[in-house]
Write a structure and sequence with these properties.
220 residues; mainly beta; Jelly Rolls; 11-stranded antiparallel β-sheet; 2 helices
């Protein structure tokens, strides 16, 4: 082997090594964006996860670049889209609620929690709700036990509802109650929801309002 280990052999081996290694490194260092043909790098040539946020130029991904349904609920962070960013904001501004209270023959205030909110300028607010009561009819002339709800915003009546039963034994009754919308204010306004309750006087002693729940929905 020593007789064949000549300068020419060694030089040719080194040249081959450089051609297969160092030459590639040299070529890679000399390849710029101008040397890559248009559309030469296809989707299959990009390794998974190779393109990260830091590699994207500001504003490079526009709405036209997004596939249909590409951004769903899972891709949107919680609270990342605020109501003010919507072209026509629709959201709940308050969730008033009330608890147990005896039914009387008079009209009584019915306390609510979370009954205050701010109505936005020009926004329309609608009050939806429901009430649940355990009622029994006392058998007198009207034919049923009736409980009335008077819904007020800032002291003005805006709606209401009614729960009733003709059963002479206690019966739990649930009914929808709510308020009609009004015109939006010319400036942001603090609002307070209150409720008055009463009956027709034909409810058995022990009849109670069990609970109420309201939702104030903002439009605009």
């Amino acid at each position: 082997m020593r007789s064949k280990l000549t300068y020419a052999n060694v030089a040719s081996t080194i040249a081959l090594f450089l051609a297969l290694t160092g030459g590639v490194v040299y070529a890679a260092s000399k390849i710029g964006t101008k040397d890559i043909q248009r559309q030469a790098v296809t989707e299959k040539k990009i390794a998974p996860g190779a393109v990260k946020n830091g590699k994207l130029a500001a504003g490079s991904v526009s709405t036209e670049k997004l596939a249909d349904a590409a951004v769903g609920n899972d891709q949107v962070k919680n609270d990342s889209i605020q109501p003010g960013k919507l072209s026509f904001p629709v959201f709940y501004v308050a969730t008033p609620a009330g608890g147990s209270q005896p039914v009387t023959s008079g009209q009584d205030p019915y306390p609510l929690s979370n009954g205050q909110w701010t109505q936005r300028k020009d926004a329309v607010n609608v009050v939806f709700g429901s009430g649940t009561a355990t009622l029994a009819y006392d058998g007198s002339g009207s034919g049923s036990c009736q409980v009335f709800f008077d819904i007020r915003v800032d002291g003005q009546q805006v709606g209401g509802g009614q729960l009733q039963t003709s059963s002479t034994t206690p019966e739990q009754v649930t009914q929808q109650i709510g308020a009609a919308p009004g015109a939006g204010p010319t400036q942001a306004t603090e609002r307070t929801l209150t409720v008055q309750v009463g009956s027709n006087g034909d409810c058995e002693a022990g009849s109670t309002i069990d609970s109420t729940r309201f939702q104030v929905l903002n439009f605009g």
